[in-house]
Give the backbone structure.
Amino acid sequence: MGTAFVAIIVFGLLVLIHELGHFIVAKLVDIKVHEFAVGMGPKLLQAKRGETAYSIRALPLGGYVRMEGADEESDDLRSFNNKPVLARIAVIFAGPFMNFILAMGLFSIIFYFVGTPTTRISEVMPQSPAQYIGIQGGDIIYSINGERMGTWQNIIDAIGNSGGNPIDITIIRNNNKIEKTVKPTRDMDTNRMTIGIMTTMERSVISSIRNGVAVIGAITADILVFLRGLITGKPGVAGEIMGPVGILNLVGQVAKTGWLDILNLTAVLSVNLGLINLLPVPALDGSRIIFLFAEILRGKPIDPEKEGMIHLIGFGILITLMLFITYKDILNFL
């Protein structure tokens, strides 16, 4: 029961934030919004404020913002199709964009509570290369081989890329710069080059946000590499795809380990949702944006019926693919 509750909260938050992006920008550009729905299927709750009905529906696996003229012809001046093209692009793009904003916020919270690694050394491991050359706890690593070390990741990369060759380290101790030369050794547990130092963690809002953005960039790069492997037919990539059942099982496992891990998983899923929605696949936000850019190039909109048919076919393919992935997930758990 706890797993189901956590899963509903996670999926609900992802959908809510995504649709909230569409909704907020639609309101800002004065598009008439008939309904803001979280979930799909039968209505569980509904309240109407002004011209907009706000509803929660039975299946927490989707949601929508029903705008005047978004899927049909309309002569209303406040309809979606009567707004400038850039305004419509902004409305469509706002959904995925909000998923990235959510991920950045969640990662920033995680980094703040866990702490952000700094370039200040907290501890030097006994009998390590760093101890042999006299590096001490409290020292700040200023540069390695003449390159300024701005983050702990810079230090890890510089040591890791040394290949075991001696490196020149400049440390700051009591406001004085001290030059050291050390030869890294390979850690048998991690198979990485190390000199035996531990970082000092600190809580910083700015550093937390900066690290959150960096993580989103890394996850985005990984997703793009995965998609490229999927398109080119790289062996084993297709088997890594996970559907709602697989994600539900993953949420259940993470829910047992603590709230920070739940936030981390939610942030990762939010990046995935935002990026996937921007792909130029019919029925997804990215495809709708492509059609709007085509309208700019042509000087007139694509035939709504043809566009609608393309999105309908795309939606059918996506649903079929989702059912197949769900079936595969179920077989994996049997």
